[in-house]
Write a structure and sequence with these properties.
This protein is α+β, with helices and mostly antiparallel strands and about 200 residues long. The protein has one domain (about 5-200): Glutamine Phosphoribosylpyrophosphate, subunit 1, domain 1. The chain is built from four helices and twelve strands. It has a five-stranded antiparallel sheet, with helices on one face. α3 runs antiparallel to α4. The protein is globular and about 45 Å long. The chain starts with 9 loop residues before the first strand and ends in a 5-residue tail after the last strand.
Length: about 200
Amino acid sequence: MSIFEYNGSALVAMVGKNCFAIASDRRLGVQLQTIATDFQRISKIHDRLFFGLSGLATDAQTLYQRLVFRHKLYQLREERDMKPETFANLVSALLYEKRFGPYFCQPVIAGLGDEDKPFICTMDSIGAKELAKDFVVAGTASESLYGACESMFKEDMEPEELFETVSQALLSSVDRDCLSGWGGHVYVVTPTEVKERILKGRMD
């Protein structure tokens, strides 16, 4: 078993019309044993920028603390919030710095940039970025997420339709992966508000 599959995870970010959604499952396991059913994989940097970490849970928590610290330093120095592209570069540099003993994490970054243009990207454990204009996925359920998102994605979705699409993609995908599941956690972010919803999924 790969160390990336040790805790199990499913993460997806998808763009809509001047909005984006980021969603994850809620299971924390040790291989096939479930430890928690309310694990938080998605974190807020500020109202227009969110990121999720799939992979080894302990590394994800360490990386989260380091990224929040770096963003607070940026806010103090620059007196403004970080743009999503800048934050993606920060995450990439932080991961590449540790390339000889990497964090076993695959980040998913989603934010609203200039003129409310959605930005999403993912990267591997040493910070090689993968930019996309539609959706990005990560975690043990990524193969089934690719298929579900590919078939359900439409361009310029409104926030409610985007929520429905990303939720259906997530729930149908985690049913095909025994290492992730136990419901979902979805954020839909528009220029004016952040909607957070908990999904109930199969509990087996």
